[in-house]
Amino acid sequence: MRNALFIAIVVLTGTGGELAVTRAMKQIGEVHHFTPRAVLGVIARAFRLGWMWIGFGLMTLSFFALLAMLSWEDVSFVVPATALSYAVGAFGAKFFLGERVNTARWVGVALVCIGVALVWAG
């Protein structure tokens, strides 16, 4: 039960953080110039967006939950089990970010989920 709870925390908060940061960066737009001044400007704009801070907070929570799991469970279980983030990421990309996810990607997500089920059973 504890493992399932912490896998859910790691996967949902980590992927949620990545989706939030993606939303923030899409609001900023593509970076065209990589001069120090331009990069600092992008960073400054990013830190003014709420989605960026939400993303940082969620990813921080995910990181510490992952550390906790690694303190009591084998890495050969934890790392494959957290691959569920690929499935959550695909659903988040489709429904939260409005991205198009093609059939090949859904098949890949299904294969990852089958792999996680095998790790969990073993």
Number of domains: 1
- Separation of the first and last Cα atoms: 16 Å
Average pLDDT value?
94
Q: Would you count the extended β strands for me? A: 0
Estimate the strand proportion.
Answer: under 5%
**In terms of structural class, how would the helical and strand content be classed?**
mainly alpha
Measured as a percent range, the helix fraction is over 70%
Shape: globular
Whole-number radius of gyration? 17 Å
Please give the count of helices.
Answer: 6
Largest sheet data: none
Which ranges are low-confidence, i.e. pLDDT below 50, for 5 or more consecutive residues?
A: none
Order of helices and strands: HHHHHH
Describe what this molecule looks like in 3D.
With 122 residues, the protein is mainly alpha-helical. The protein has one domain. Helices cover 81% and strands 0% of the residues. It is built from 6 helices and no strands. Helix 1 packs antiparallel against helix 3, helix 1 packs across helix 5 and helix 5 packs antiparallel against helix 6. It is globular. The mean pLDDT is 94.
